[in-house]
Specification:
It is a single chain. This protein is α+β, with helices and mostly antiparallel strands. It has 2 domains: about 120 residues, no CATH class; about 50 residues. The radius of gyration is 26 Å and the shape is elongated.
Length: about 180
């Protein structure tokens, strides 16, 4: 595991320090990110999970990844062992904690934590408040304008090259047919 892959995420780092039993004191195995706007939601989720686990269960439990996917919170966990003696937490209780956190993320701005709605910005689905949605929309528009300008510049610069290629391709075609 590469401990440097996510250490620059301050929200995740705070959660690792606050909930060492859930992370076993280390970075998740897979790249993770906790956005500032959702840090309270994730903190509440981890508080519930930590309270639910006894010491034996905590030894087998590990947070593998926390991230945003398709606009909402995703949490991936693992258990080292599964047995009939109740070592693993109640899956129904765990699922309800995660479902509540996902539902909260669906209406909470990813950036600031204010009430938000799911929005499509470019190719991405994301939850944003009105203020951050307009900032994001402007950034997407600026990016699209840059792409369009680059395509136009490439097209203008490439026209003379394209004509030369067409002539050469035509000459080869003619030559290949025995006409040249």
């Amino acid at each position: 595991m590469n401990d440097t892959n996510i250490s620059s995420d301050p929200e995740l780092q705070k959660l690792i320090e606050r909930f060492p039993r859930l992370f076993r004191g280390a970075q998740p195995a897979v790249w993770s990110h906790v956005p500032v706007g959702w840090s309270a939601i994730v903190g509440t989720l981890f508080t519930g999970i930590d309270a639910m686990l006894n010491d034996d269960q905590a030894k087998s439990f590990r947070v593998e990844q926390v991230k945003e996917e398709f606009g909402t919170l995703r949490l991936y966990v693992s258990f080292d062992r599964i047995d009939a003696d109740g070592v693993n937490p109640n899956p129904t209780a765990l699922r309800s904690l995660v479902d509540a956190a996902v539902a909260a993320s669906e209406v909470t701005c990813y950036v600031c934590g204010a009430p938000g709605v799911m929005r499509k910005l470019g190719a991405w689905a994301t939850v944003r408040c009105d203020a951050h949605a307009s900032l994001q929309a402007r950034a997407v528009l600026r990016h699209r304008l840059v792409v369009v300008e680059r395509l136009r510049a490439a097209r203008v610069a490439g026209r003379s090259r394209a004509r030369r290629c067409d002539v050469r391709a035509g000459a080869r075609r003619l030559g290949g047919m025995g006409l040249g």
